[in-house]
Design a protein that fits this description.
The protein has about 100 residues and is an alpha+beta fold. The chain has helices spanning about 65-70, 80-90, and strands spanning about 10-15, 20, 25, 35-40, 45-50, 55. The protein has one domain (about 10-80). The chain is built from two helices and six strands, in the order ββββββαα.
Length: about 100
Amino acid sequence: MPSCQEAAGLMMRWQQPHVIGGEVRTCPGCGVYQDWIVFCLRDDSIWLRCRAGHETKEPGLDAVWYCRNSGPVDRFHPTLEEGLRGARRWRPHLGH
């Protein structure tokens, strides 16, 4: 298992809308407002990915938020692409 320093980041599914600063975040590419994959990258930045595959940086969230809201890590992947493929294979409900 890689250490935190070796991992490029973490990801989790977030089904409900993101309400940040009293505002519901929507995807700038397609307007969807729920059912995201949330990425917490090594630089502590948070990125949201919608079902259509649009990705956007979310400055209103940080690694502390991610740690408070994520569950335990149950799988590691060497790259983001393999992680997304693995998410579809092991958790087809992610659908991303």
